[in-house]
Predict the structure.
Amino acid sequence: MNELFVAARALVGGEERRELAFLVENGRFAKIGDAKSMTIEAARDGTKTRRFPEDRLLVPGFINGHSHAYQVLLRGWADDWSFDKWRSDALYRVVPQLSPEDVYWVFVFAFSEMLAAGITSVVEFFYLNGAGNAHAEAAIRAARDTGIRLLFARTWMDASYAPAAYRESIEVARSRSEELLQSYPEINFCVAPHSLHAASPAMIEAAAAFAAEHDCMLHVHVAEAAYEGAATLSEHGATPIRLLDRLGALNERCVAVHAIYIDAEEQALIAERGARVIHNPMTNQYLGDGICDISGLRALGVPIGLGTDADVKPSAIDEMRAASLLQKIARTDGAAFGARAAFDLATAGGARALRLDAGRFEEGAFADFVVLDARAIDPWAPAVNALVYRGEDAWVQGTFVGGTRVAGREPSAAAVAARERLRAIADRLVP
């Protein structure tokens, strides 16, 4: 059904627009224009019209470029640990024990949190594939039932140190990935060799070939920590980005997650190859990883998005603020990375990095948008600055995916049920 949305205030490319209308057809923006003329036309055609007044601000749906939703089970009790301890005693201890039913409820909970924070699309980087596709199918079902737009980054891992719940051979990973592609065409499937330490060179080469064959994106953790560069240099005679390039995986399909420990030549190589980067500033701080030089990468034209990664608090607003402030600190320059640049990472820029037709008010794009409470925005302040530097998730009043309202201020019945189920799962698994 067609519907016209009329916004007294909207952010378009970071600029505030007044009295803007959006006609939604088949889940996409079919026409965008002046509210007065489009409202008259809608009345003539009998098109349903919904208006948002002055105290509401419409913004494009936020794009979450990297998430591990099951890690919501780790927050709180596994805080303030070193990365090695966090990985071995929390991540590798709890997550492999999840059943497909557990995965479903954990993901309903995490996806509901994201939607309540205005996140309309999420890349879920999913590990639990060692026993087959049942766990992945549960995650996909959770996305469908909550209404979030899912990009499913199915991990390939073959490192001997990884839990059996994560490990597969190349042939098995390829076969199971093809099964998911055929069974769930709606999920925007991505292949995801875990990293240069958890996927063998042969597996990464095979994943790159798979991405080319199926024209899908390839997501990979890379240069997240200093030790990784030392290890790949010692074992393969190349730093992580250069090794990815040697393996044929650094190209226009590659989404490099983290990309913190890279030099200027590697930044230029990422740009030359047409690769993309997902920055995870809150998790990078939480785990003490470091700061990605998104200012340098952006100056080279590299598409960059934001991710909530460990999902300590899945908030695109927090990620935008952290992205901006960390660059100001890293460069000791208050003008290093402004509010509009940060807003772009969470919306249109993030969508470009993922090859996703969303994140912007533009005809033909997915009609994914967020309704914010604008009453806390000072009348003299640019709305984008207020959102990035002072915004809160509580400002989100409604989240729309494909023109359909999927979340509001009150939690859905599914979200309430998921919280109760999560309590029982945590009682069973959390030490």
Q: What stands out?
A: The chain has two domains: 3-60+363-407, 62-354. The domain at 62-354 is CATH 3.20.20.140 (TIM Barrel). The two ends are 49 Å apart (CA to CA).
